[in-house]
TrEMBL record, chains A, B, C, D:
Keywords: Metal-binding. Transmembrane segments: none annotated. CDD domains: MPP_DR1281. This is FIG006542: Phosphoesterase. The active site is at residue 68. Gene3D superfamilies: 3.60.21.10. GO terms for molecular function: 2',3'-cyclic-nucleotide 3'-phosphodiesterase activity; metal ion binding. SUPFAM superfamilies: Metallo-dependent phosphatases. PANTHER family: 2',3'-CYCLIC-NUCLEOTIDE 2'-PHOSPHODIESTERASE. Coiled coil: none annotated. The keyword Metal-binding applies. It comes from the Bacteria. Fe cation 1 binds at residues 8, 39-40, 181.
Amino acid sequence: MRILFIGDVVGQSGCNAITAHLPEMIADWRIDLVVVNGENAAGGFGITEAIYHELIAAGADAVTLGNHSWDKKEALTFIERAPRLVRPLNYIPGAPGRGSALVEAKNGQRALVINALGRLFMMDPVNDPFGLLDEEISACPLRKDADAIVVDFHCEASSEKLVAGYFCDGRVSLVAGTHTHTPTADHRILPGGTAYITDAGMTGDYESVIGIKKEEMLRRLTTGIPSGRFEAADGTATICGIAVETDDRTGLALRVSPVRMGGILEQIIPQFWTGT
Amino acid sequence: MRILFIGDVVGQSGCNAITAHLPEMIADWRIDLVVVNGENAAGGFGITEAIYHELIAAGADAVTLGNHSWDKKEALTFIERAPRLVRPLNYIPGAPGRGSALVEAKNGQRALVINALGRLFMMDPVNDPFGLLDEEISACPLRKDADAIVVDFHCEASSEKLVAGYFCDGRVSLVAGTHTHTPTADHRILPGGTAYITDAGMTGDYESVIGIKKEEMLRRLTTGIPSGRFEAADGTATICGIAVETDDRTGLALRVSPVRMGGILEQIIPQFWTGT
Amino acid sequence: MRILFIGDVVGQSGCNAITAHLPEMIADWRIDLVVVNGENAAGGFGITEAIYHELIAAGADAVTLGNHSWDKKEALTFIERAPRLVRPLNYIPGAPGRGSALVEAKNGQRALVINALGRLFMMDPVNDPFGLLDEEISACPLRKDADAIVVDFHCEASSEKLVAGYFCDGRVSLVAGTHTHTPTADHRILPGGTAYITDAGMTGDYESVIGIKKEEMLRRLTTGIPSGRFEAADGTATICGIAVETDDRTGLALRVSPVRMGGILEQIIPQFWTGT
Amino acid sequence: MRILFIGDVVGQSGCNAITAHLPEMIADWRIDLVVVNGENAAGGFGITEAIYHELIAAGADAVTLGNHSWDKKEALTFIERAPRLVRPLNYIPGAPGRGSALVEAKNGQRALVINALGRLFMMDPVNDPFGLLDEEISACPLRKDADAIVVDFHCEASSEKLVAGYFCDGRVSLVAGTHTHTPTADHRILPGGTAYITDAGMTGDYESVIGIKKEEMLRRLTTGIPSGRFEAADGTATICGIAVETDDRTGLALRVSPVRMGGILEQIIPQFWTGT
Ligand SMILES: [Fe+2]
Ligand SMILES: [Fe+2]
Ligand SMILES: [Fe+2]
Ligand SMILES: [Fe+2]
Ligand SMILES: [Fe+2]
Ligand SMILES: [Fe+2]
Ligand SMILES: [Fe+2]
Ligand SMILES: [Fe+2]
């Protein structure tokens, strides 16, 4: 299966890039499954129902969230009628929505998409993600009940993301970190066969501070005094993510490559899908 | 000037890689200035005098530190006789050592090397790094008193590192983030001419959790129960860093490239130095 | 029922005070139930089996823990043969020991003792305490299955402790906060009948920084440089806690008073037990 | 000199209590100096110019702030024309206002009032408070240039407040902690003669969660889902603070007593001022 995971889409800039380019990426690379982190899609903070549908219409098979899940209050309600919207599985039981979704991929195969929040340096107290990850994966095992399993592990600390990677290694197709809004260059296939990247990076305007206009961020951190609102930067986005090709017999990763298209970052696309 | 900045060297594995490969990298690429972050060089935690000299002997012109500066107690004293060892400049005044050093590069030019600690999610309370960075840069301006200025900004949050980058943009040659032990793929030249990367990555064994053997890290985070010590992983290291070529007339960056050599990460070397 | 809850016993100084005075307090005041927080009893960090038995021998009917539960490794094993030792109930499932214990009080009545860790500003990530508190209290309700219920809510933030108080109000006899090692003066009976105090205070030498010798604490915080170990202060302890008299028909609080005996703090004992 | 320090005044409830009772407390107890923490006076978040004048009119000789200093944007400007309004001294240099003020007490004596923010568990990164405290106290020493010195040390951790107390011991009249909105019962005179309390407590409605209506606080912490705004509770306030009588020859403390008047907390007033 060909999987494309796209990191935190930030604001209008990020949404525009997805709408403009995702359909042709899917067609050109014959992608089977697209997972998009949408926690910052609505102006940098949260997601709306309209934007959720925009992402799905552009080709996302599932949309994941993170610590900004509920920034837009409507998400608390529309998530119930948005079966492909996945919020962190380790919220306090009773939270709206779901922490995982078994979706049908474009090729008809079954993909389990899981979202989890890490805890180190994160402000929102959540429950242990690892036990719940284990439950989810055990309840819908790779090959038996899912042809691919994608885990979006959303947190600050690289150590915790690596632990998530090794914890799931051999049992899921991909563990992709999100939240720092900065792509890492440590993509690889872990010893057990799971593709891994510490952070997929954001899909937004990089001439900014993590997608937010840099002027207020600079003032805030260098003077300690708030002087305005945080607004999403509006320059051209770099679409950032990770491409994984799995072995259909095992559901594990055969190849992994970063994706960085458009905007100011150095560009890269998966050579193994474009090589002829 | 040709500058090579190498991220957090972790344990014996990292030191071995530096000793084995740095001399020929310097020779092959005709590097003028090497800055190495050494805060984890001694078994993962701190630095010793012997290791400092080992790094200098291998070709480092300056060694920077971070939140682990004083993990080995001897650093509190030997730093006074280690003129090329630079600890964070925003420690409480009176701390041993120095927060910046003007060193002579291999080509005889003057390079100012500065180390600063960020504050978001960092456990050690330190003073405002930005005002002090401004003071240092103003006291020894690029071109006038320094032919290159390298800032090692050591912290957790990508946002704070980006703020450091933009804050210094146009006034220093390079702002290289450290501390997360994970290389980022957002290297670029900022609008004002300063080379930037959110994290240079660690120089250590990546088959680990940020350079530490993964078994205990996994147990600790997935059970909540400490059951052993953290030890540096001992597989082959990937040397991770960033290469910058500056314009001698301005001291600003002309070219920037990540460096990742050895170990399990995808390899990359600066094409602009190897192209003939 | 007459309940005495004693806050974090710190080091030898705290243990000595308990051994020397608790038996006569129990006798003089005809106390039915004594709960002691012992997370710092072993030299300031954790608890040993010997000290656990010492506290029980002095009259404790249950010993609670906190973020320092496992500082002494032996606690991970001896807790299984220490039925009156209660660790936080919101550890990751599988942790040794128990998060609550139904103990027989000195008058033969049944008392449920629960320990929970809060999450704000606490370094150890733990699961949501409130849902688990609700489960425990529902499974062993006041009056029906327990004649008294005592909750030791261990955390940093006063806000979270107050939330715990109101959350349990009317369903437990006492919510006593611990962890800050500083007695608060906001003891009261909440509207639903539950006795409450934000922090019971430590039982240790107050001529110190939260029970630790003040010299190293001062150096560490004012210079930022570690220069020695943290050791428990060894002056005379103040026994700090809270006394509650419950209504036998309801299990709820009729009277509440702080207890502060010995050492340098202003002294106070429950007038309602000494009035004759 | 007779000094009354009043902890965080929260919202209309707190302001009403000050307006209604402070004038007669000053008269009855012949108080010479009143310092009031006003960081939450405006609806729980920050301070306005009108409220500042209300507190001064009621008898405050100085008003201190904390982490909520700039919650009301107008504070950034009106502080410049509010000579008795004191914000934390360890903000990044260039912040509006002042970190200390030498005010004339009601008896004509000179009192230095200092405000400082601690750093442990505080979200706003600020500079080292201890070095700056030392500078302030050295520049205006007790007896020589000030007849009394009052330090409002505003932070979360009891350990850091105790360090502030011992750090200033013998050089100031009073170190009063603020911020937790919970009065502590560890008031005392430190060995060097400085009066100390870990937290003076809030002046607000205690039938709440730290002065905020408890319903939303409970929902937020027990479900993890924001569902409304935080609003100041509006029941009758308890005026909480600490009373100190200093020796005019030394400026140090002779007597210290908590003050808790009105509302639901156990009441206490300084016996040494009411003993006739
Ligand atoms: Fe995000
Ligand atoms: Fe996030
Ligand atoms: Fe490091
Ligand atoms: Fe570090
Ligand atoms: Fe404790
Ligand atoms: Fe504790
Ligand atoms: Fe406050
Ligand atoms: Fe505050």
